[in-house]
Model the fold of this input.
Amino acid sequence: MIRIESEAWQAMVEHAKRAFPKECCGVMIGAEADDGKRQVTHAIPCRNAYEGDQKDRFLIDPKDQLAADRKARELGLTVLGFFHSHPNEGSYFSATDLKNSWPWYSNVVLSIRDGEFKEAKSFIANDDQTAADPEELEF
Ligand SMILES: [Zn+2]
Done:
């Protein structure tokens, strides 16, 4: 289960709306409790570095990802996962998303329709990246 604090959540939605009709992406930072419950306190909007049509693809700029890693360390927190948007699509986890994901991390997908936030879901890929399980998401 993952809970996204209000300020982080606002940053994610704003980033997704601003990027529309392209996909946005970013990093979620926070802490994981002993019971496995994840709390996102910071969302870091990143540049979509995918070279091609970004309406259904994203690639987190490696420089931005490094900066997010650094920020997490500075704050004594952990990179808990990543977020991206689906412009005019539902918040499902696509085959491409699965292929490009890493095990353990939470992947939040925000559905943006006509520039407005619709819904969001979170997924965690299994160790061999053959499937992803939905994760309970609170925001
Ligand atoms: Zn996707």
Remarks:
- The two ends are 11 Å apart (CA to CA).
- The beta strands are 2-4, 25-32, 38-46, 78-87, 106-113, 116-125, 132-135, 137-138.
- The CA atoms of residues 78 and 124 lie 16 Å apart.
